[in-house]
Structure formats: structure tokens, C-alpha cells
Amino acid sequence: MEYQLREWVEHEIKLNIGSRFRLPDIPGDTLAPRVFTSTYFDTAGHRLARLGISLRRLTDHRKTRWQLKLPHKRSRLELEIPSHHGTPPEPFLDLLFGLLRNEPCEVIAKLRTKRSGIRAQTMEGPLATIVVDRVTILDGRRAIGRFSEIEIERLGGNEKEMNRLKSLLRSAGAEEGDPRPKIVKVLGIQPDSTAPTVAASAPPLDHFKVMIENQVKELLLHDPGTRFGKDPEELHRMRVSTRKFRALLRAAKVLLLPEWSNSLRTEMGWLGQALGAVRDYDVLLAHLQLEASSLLPAEKKIFCRVLISLETKRSVARAHLLEALRSDRYLKLLNYLEEAVHHPMPSTTEGVTLKEIARKEFNKLRRMVRQLKSNPSDQELHRVRIRTKRARYAAELAQRTMEKAVSRYIKQSKRLQGVLGDHQDAIIAEKQLRELLPGIRSYKSAFVMGQVVARLHSRRQQARAAFPQEWEKLKKRGRLAFSEPS
């Protein structure tokens, strides 16, 4: 069956109001009043709602459409499919495959909304849609609860104009609102996207549990966006969560049973490789598109053929990724991860502090850099980048138990990672282009590719030149962060 899919990003602000609230006079066009019913679907354990995801069937004047709302940076990505079917459309089920995991997707709530509002205008054009929602929570046909709120969806203007609009609504009686989706408020749950915390004095294993819980939530949160495939940042964030999870397992291995942590590392490594194959092409294409932007129009047209070739390779890698994300192995891994968050398998080691773990990783990094020659190889710098990342994750694990100096160390670690990351990205891009050169038959194409290769080589040299200074800064930060008190 063919579906018509619409998508847009919703930039929304919510305000709470009382039953007697009335919109103040705001320049704009009055919206026609609407009454619609929203039927929400989820697993029995509310796995979607806990991630701030909404799946609903919306009925309005005998028209029915399905909507899926996914967290997207500071906003929400809204997907909509017109359909009169009583069950969620296949495209939405495909996007939610990793979250539903073959569990029944059932009705969890039904809301009836009376909506009125205005499309606010300025001299320059539309500013925002302001709607007043009077919501009734239904049990069958019986009302079991009510609440009201204002939703402000930004259409244009700047931040100052939006703040002025909010101030006007507050002066009319509106109050700071609950940013959670309606269904999350109705269920009375806090989304899992809210990062858990632990007291600084808690045992090391408790800090580890919170850190891996955050990574599992990140992985799940970006799973649908990775499947949708429109924003490369979704896949990037999902991949980072797998890498960080593995690095935390490695850093905290003294706290954990080896057979438990090793099996998790193996499975997360498998997932990381599947994600990495696509992510590497995303980075490569972004770098090459940036380099191509400075070419002359005729040269840019020639170079586009190279980009098309690489995009074809990315499509193949993405097909393999989607196959992995639909596999039983992936579903088992997700179940295993959720179990691991609540019940990590501790070793019998006692008395090890998180600061000692972080210091150990920093010392490993320092020894690696100390052994470098004056002109280290590309492979050696890549290994330093990996070791820097591992040391940083170990520091983040210990961050709440240490002084502010470790925060400055973590910040400088990111700077060094960025320098070495630019170096590695330029190497990969240059290598890919050189591999394509033998198949180039046109001297014009070869000339353009040669120009881009030269630019990439220059980028590598700039990163190499910046490395010693950035490392000295990190070494200083590390000594301050991990020195023993006098």
C-alpha cells in the first residue's frame, strides 16, 4: 500500500491557563474553531511515551490521519499519514520497530480537544500560531479529567518578538507551561529523556549505572530518526551512544564481571560497525561538499559526479544498516541493554574510586603521546584520538565525584579530539578520492579531483600543526585534575 507522508519540524512553546482564560488582542487572523479526537497508541509499558514520543490517530470532521511525533534537537519532528485504518500505518511501525520490539501497539488514552486561536502577524509576515486547547480525557464516552494549555508554534520573527508575545500572554493570565507532550502529562510520567543523576558520594557502580542508562536512552531516542534517514545527526548521536557505552565498559572493567562486560562490548561493537559504515560516508560527503563549494561552477559540476558515486556507496551501506536494525540480534541486544542498566554484574573488587579509573586512562594517554616521534604517522595520531576519547569518557564517569578541574580537562579533551578528528576525516576523504582516480577518464575531472586532494592535504597539515599545542594544554589540565591533594 502506498502512503502519503508529510513531515515538518515543530517549534513549540507551551503555557498553562485556567478555564476562564481569554486570548488578548493580538494582530493576526482568527483561526476557525476545531474539535478533534486523538487516540494514542503505545506498548503496555509506555515505552514510546517515556521517550517523549507520541503516536496518535487524529479524527477531525470525519477525516482521519496518523501522526508520529519524535524529539528532534530542541523541537519535535512531526510525521503525518492520511489513513482511515484503525491500526498504525506500516511506515510508522517500521520507524518504531526497535522501540515496539514486536510488542502489541495498543490504545493507551483518548483525548478530545476543543481548539481556538489566532495566527499572529507582524508587518514582516507571520509570527506564530497561538492556539488555546481545552482538553478532555476520555474513558469511553465518559470524561475523567480536563486541562487547558496554550501552544505557540513559531512561524517567523526573532527570539525577541517571541519573548514579547509570551509576555503578553502571561500578562493575560497564562503561566509557565509543562513542555511535555499531552499524552505524557496524562499518563503522569517523566520522559526518559530527562537525564538521571546520582549523589557524588554514591558508590562507583551507581555512577556507572547512571552513565550507561543515559547511553541506552540516547540510543533508543535516536533509533527512529536513524531509520528515517533524513538527518545525519540522528545516526551520529546513535553511534556516539554505542561508542561511549563501550568505552565506559572498558574504563569500568575493574568494577564488572569480565564475562558480562565482554559480551556487551562485543554486541555493541557489532552495532557500532553497522552504524559507522554509514556515518563515515556522511562525514566524507560533508567534507567533500564543503571543499567543492569553493570550486568554480564548471569544476563544481564535474565534481558532483564524484559525490554521486559516493552517495551510491552510502546507500548500499545504509541498506545493510537497516537490515541489521531489523534483525533478531538487534532486538536481543536492546533487551539485554535494558536489563544491564538495572542489573550490571559487579566484580568482587572493592575500594576502587572513579578518580583512580579516570587517572589511569589519562596516564595511558600520556604514555602513548610520550612515545610518539617528532613526526608521528597518521595511524599513531588516530590511535591518540581514540585514546583521548576513552580517557575523556572515563573522566565524565568520574566527573560528579571530582573538583571543577576535571570539567576543564573534559573540555580540552573535546578540543583535541576535534583537531585529530579533522586530521582523520581529511585522510579518509583523500584516500577515497585517490581510489577513484584510476577510473577517471577525463583530464578535467582528474584536474578538479587533484585540486580537492590538495585542499584535503592542506587540512591534514593544519591539524598536525595544531596537535602539539592542544596536547600540551590537555596534559596541563590532566595534571591539575588528577593530582593528589597535598
TrEMBL record:
UniProt cross-references to InterPro entries, sorted A to Z: CHAD_dom, CHAD_dom_sf, CYTH-like_dom_sf, CYTH_domain
Domain CHAD: 201-476
PROSITE patterns xref list: CHAD (PS51708), CYTH (PS51707)
Listed Pfam families: CHAD, CYTH
CDD domains named among the record's database cross-references: CYTH-like_Pase (cd07374)
Domain (CYTH) ranges: 1-190
Name of this chain's protein: CYTH and CHAD domain-containing protein
Taxonomic source organism: Candidatus Nitronereus thalassa
